[in-house]
Amino acid sequence: MAKINPSATPTVRSYMLNDIEVPDTQLLCNIKRFDNYSVSAQDTYTLNQNVDSHISRPISKVLENMHPIANVKTNINITKSTTRPIVINAKFDAQNKTLVDILCITVAQNTNAQVVIKYEGTTNIYHSGLLKIKTCKNSHLDIVIYSNFVGNNYLNLEDEKEQNSSINYHLIDFASGTTVHNLFANTAGPNTSTTLNTLYYGDKNAVIDLNYYANLKDLKSSTTFYTIGSLTANATKHYKGTINFVKGAKGSTGDEDEYCILLSPKAKARALPILLCNEEDVNGSHSTSAGKVDESALFYLQSRGIQHSNAVRMLIRAQFSKSIERIFDADVRQLTSKHINRRINSEN
Asked: Within 10 A of 112 (CB to CB), how many other CB atoms are there?
């Protein structure tokens, strides 16, 4: 067994959240050629394979050691603003079941961009992805990563935001198996912004480990982590969210909201949102909750003549609606909504 995805905050260990254990066989893979990977053709960026695979906080050394032999390496340098997203599609099938990809994105100064990444396919999939983002001065990036397959999914994210730049992340994950997210968000200048909107749905024996860390070290920077998910059957979820106000981050703000809906008495959810502070003039807040659907709301709907199963579906959809509405891409928003509805209908 291997311990992976450690938190940068030592106190997490006291809550049995710090290291999840997975069999070594789940980390290793036989890397073969992957042909079903495409980037939409546009005139707003340049594309090459010269990637930087260094990562400050890897999920595990085993995964990090596979970066040099990744079967897909992509460097996207976005040089012009656009309202039409760059779309990256990775399609898994019987001939393309293993993907180790490294994606580096640079958004040029005074540029606004959108990127949509989709990982979709059949069963018994292996995916290990490294995504590195740099936003230059006065730039903005909206990015959505949509994962919907059966298998193991390891996603390592790291960014660097220069002055007056921002990144809005949307992570939608329906992968069934071991799902791991590791985000390390950094400021490299004042007045930066990071927003993370995560949505997941775990079933069967799924293990979901979410490890988000924002390092605020410059003036008037902000971070918002919003996470919503649901667990059924024997699924397990760990949430580790840390916002660190470093000396020099005066006027900065940080906020964490984490919610988990338990649809099975065997499902387990642990969460530990953390605020670290070494600066006086900052504003931080956090909240977390896990449990069944609201009994009082359920009683109210039933008192209005709505059947129990329909009332449960309505309440679960309502919990997810806020996160779904935030997704900027209409296609992913529709895919997410349909999948949530399908899963809710099959459970209730």
From this structure: 16
Which amino acid belongs to residue 99? Answer: L
**Averaged pLDDT for residues 136-164:** 97
Nearest-angstrom CA–CA distance, 288 and 123: 32
Cα radius of gyration rounded to whole Å, the chain:
20
Other C-beta atoms closer than 10 Å to the C-beta of 190 total 18
Question: In this predicted structure, what is the pLDDT of residue 25?
Answer: 82
> Residue 343: which pLDDT band, with cuts at 50, 70 and 90?
confident
Q: To which residue do tokens 């994606």 refer?
A: 103
Which residues are CB-neighbours of 151 under 8 A, at least 6 positions away?
92, 97, 123, 124, 125, 126, 127, 175, 176, 177
Beta-strand runs (E) in the chain: 2-4, 20-22, 37-39, 45-48, 72-78, 86-91, 98-107, 112-120, 125-135, 140-148, 151-161, 166-173, 178-187, 193-202, 207-216, 222-231, 236-245, 253-262, 268-277, 283-291
pLDDT at residue 3 tops 90 = no
Task: Please name every residue paired with 72 in a beta bridge, in sequence order, or none if there are none.
Answer: 101
Query: Is 119:149 a contact under the CB 8 Å cutoff?
Result: yes
